[in-house]
Amino acid sequence: MAKAAELGKNRTGIDMSPADAERMISGAKEFSSAASADGRTAIAALEREYIAEAEPIGSVPAPGTLRGALKTGAKKATGKNPEVFLNKLGERLAYERTGVRLYESVITKVEAADQMHPAGPVTVDELQQIRDEEMQHFQLLSDVAESLGADPTALTPAANVAAVATMGIPKVLNDPRTTVAQCLDALLTLELVDNAAWELLIQLADNMGLKDASEQFQRALEQEKEHLATVRSWLEEITTQEARRGAQARH
Amino acid sequence: MAVKLFDSKGVALERQVFTWKDLVQKPISKLDDDAFTRVRVILMNGIESQALRFQNTCLLLNRELREPLARIGRTEHHQQTLVNWLLSADHSPLETTIAYEQVAIEVTAAIAQKEPDEYLAQVYRFGLLEDFDHLYRYSALYDRLEGRDPNTILQSYTDIIPGRPTSIEHRHPLDDLREPYERASAHPQSKLNALTLVSGEYQTHDYYMHFGPTFADPVARQLYAEIASIEHQHVTQYASLIDPNESLLEKWLLHEANEAWNYYSCMETETNPRIKAIWERFLEYELGHVKAVSELFKKHEKRDPAEILPETLPDAIPYVSQRDFVRETLSKELELSAARTQFVDRSEETEETRRYRDTINSEGSPSEAVAAGYRWRPGTELTKEQAQAA
Q1: Burial environment of residue B19 by CB neighbours within 10 A (0 to 12, 13 to 18, 19 or more)
Q2: Are the CB atoms for B6 and B294 separated by under 8 Å?
Q3: Interval B258-298: pLDDT, tens
Q4: What does the pLDDT look like over B320-331, one tens digit per residue?
Q5: Could you report the per-residue pLDDT of B81-136, keeping only the tens digit for each?
Q6: Tens-digit pLDDT profile for residues B146-184
C-alpha cells in the first residue's frame, strides 16, 4: 500500500507538461490584458458595499429563566455586558462538544493503523483520555451556562463563527485517505485555537466576577495545555519518523 | 471497437444491482489523476442526471410507462450516485466549478467538430466561447480570493484567457432559442450531440444554483448568480435544438443511446484502469436499457428503433486538449451574438437584448469586477509581485 508522502505522479504543477505549459503561459500573455497593479480594487469596492449593508450573523439568546434574567440585568446595571461572556461561553461549549467527536474520529483512524496510516507514537489510550477531558469541559461549560440561566443548547454567534472557521478539520480527520500525521496537523490547529480561547474566557469570567467558574476554567486550561503539548510532540515525532523511513528507503 | 446497438444485449435490468459499498467507491485523486478522468466523471454525472430528470418528467406525463420508468430510473439514480461519488472530498465547490468549466470547454469543442450540421456546429461554437470566459472569471476568483492556482485543476490542458465577456453574454430570453433539428432528417450524431450538451449545461446550472449560496464573499455570490443565469440561457439554447415533435418514447430511446455512447467514449479514452472498468460496466447497463426501451418502442409505437438509432454507436468523443480549436474559434467568432434563432454581428443585436443587458448590469458586473486586469500566471497572480520584489 502506498505511503501518503510517497513520490509519485502528482500532476498539479506547471512542470508536469512542459509543452502545454509553455502554450498556457504564452497564451495568457497574448490574450489577456496587461495585469493590473491591484486586481482586488473592484472586488474590494463590491465587498465594501455589502459590508455596509450587512446584518449580524445572529444574536446571543436572552437567558431563559427569571433568575438568569435578573442576574443579567444586575450585571448590565454595573456596566458589564453579560452577553459578551455568554456568547464566548457558548462558543467554548460547542467547540469542546465537537472536540469530543473529533477525537473519536482520530481514535478510529489510530485503531485502523496500517502501513499507509502509521500511528507512530500515538496511542488510543492517550487519545481516549483527551477525548474524555474534552467531554468533561463540555459538561463544565454546560453547568456554568445553566447556573447563569443561559440555555446550553443554543447556538451563539461566536459558536457559529468558530464552527465555520474550523469547518475543514472534520473533513481532514474523517477522510479515509488521510494519515494519522495529517490528522495531527489538523488537531494542532484545533488545540492552538482552543488554548487561546480558554485564556480569553478566563479573563472574561474574572471581569464578570465569576470566581468559581474562573477557577474551574483555569483547571481546564491546564489540561488543554497538556493536549496541545501532546499533539505537538506526536506530530514532530511521527513526521521525523516518516522522514527517516523515507531516507532509509532511498538508500 | 464498434459497439452494435441492436445486437448487444447488455446487462439485463434485473442484474443491474448495487450495494452501498459498491455505490461509494474509492474516489479519484485530485492531485494524481489525469484532469480528463475528472472531466469524464463530471460529464457522466451530468448525462445520468439528465436521464433521470427526463424519466421523472415522463412520469408526470404518461401512465402506461410508469413501471418501466420507475425500474430504469432507479438504476440510473444509482449509476449517477456511483459516478458522482468518485469526486474526492478535497475538491472545494470552487475547484469543482473550475473543473465543470473545463468539461464544458473541452466537451463542447470536441462535439462542435463532430457535428455534421453546420447550423448546430455554429450553436456549439457560440456556446463554447461563453463557457470559455466563465473559466477565466472563476479562475480569477480562485486566485484573488484564495491565493490558489486554477491550473492545479486544469493541468495545462485548457487556456485561462477571456472569451466572449460574460457581462455581454446576457441576452433576452427569445434570443436564446434556436431552430430545432428535424427528427426525420437529422443525423443520429446530431441528436446525441444535442442531448450531451443539454445534459452538461443543465447539471452546471444546477451545480451553481446549489453551491452559489454556500459562498460567503459577495463577489463570489454575485458571480455564481451571474454565471448560473448564463447557464440557464445555455440550457434554453441547447434544449431548443431538440425537435419537440419527437414522441416521448423516441426521446427516451435517444436518451438511453446517448448514455451508451457517452459511456463508450469514456471507456475508450480512460487512463485509470479502475475507473475504466466502471465505464465498461455501465456501458453494458445502458445497452440493457436501450434493449428494454427498444422493446417498449416496438410495442407502443409499432415502430422499428432502427428508424431513429444508428446500427453502431458513433466514434468516441476524443478527450484531449482542444486548445487549437478554441483559439481558432476565438479569433473568428468572438464578436458574434444572436438575434432570435440566428447568429449575427454584435452590432445587430435586438433592442430587447440590449435593454435586458443594460438593466441587469446597471448596478455593476461581478464578472468584470472579479477579473479586472487579470492575467493568469503559474503559481497565481501573486508571483508577479514576488518577481518584482526580488
Answers
A1: exposed
A2: yes
A3: 999 999 999 999 999 999 999 999 999 999 999 999 999 99
A4: 999 999 999 999
A5: 999 999 999 999 999 999 999 999 999 999 999 999 999 999 999 999 999 999 99
A6: 999 999 999 999 999 999 999 999 999 999 999 999 999
Residue B43, helix vs strand vs coil: helix
Q: How much is the ipTM here?
A: 0.94
Q: What's chain B's average pLDDT?
A: 97
Region B19-31 average pLDDT = 98
Rounded to whole angstroms, the Cα distance separating B375 from B363 reads 25
Second CATH level (architecture) for the domain A61-250: Up-down Bundle (1.20)
Rounded Cα distance, A212 and A112, in Å: 42
- How close are the terminal C-alpha atoms of chain B, in Å? 56
- As a whole number of angstroms, the distance between CA A43 and CA A221 comes to 41
Residues, chain A: 251
What grid cell was written down for B348?
Answer: 445587430
Question: What is the average pLDDT value for chain A, to the nearest integer?
Answer: 91
- B322 at interface of A, judged by CB pairs closer than 8 A: no
What is the residue type of A20?
D
Task: Please tell me the pTM assigned to this model.
Answer: 0.96
Question: C-alpha cell of A41?
Answer: 480594487
- Residue A36, chain B, CB below 8 Å: the answer is yes
Q: What is the DSSP string of A229-250?
A: HHHHHHHHHHHHHHHHHHHHHH
- d(CA A20, CA B190) in angstroms, rounded, equals 31
Q: What angle, rounded to 10 degrees, do the helices at A180-208 and A211-250 form?
A: 160
Of B30, B34, B323, the CB nearest to A23: B323
Residue with cell 454584435: B346
Residue A19: closest CA among chain B residues belongs to which residue? B156
Select the residue of B32, B162, B369 nearest A46 (Cβ to Cβ). Answer: B369
Close Cβ partners of B71 (under 8 Å, ≥ 6 residues apart) = B13
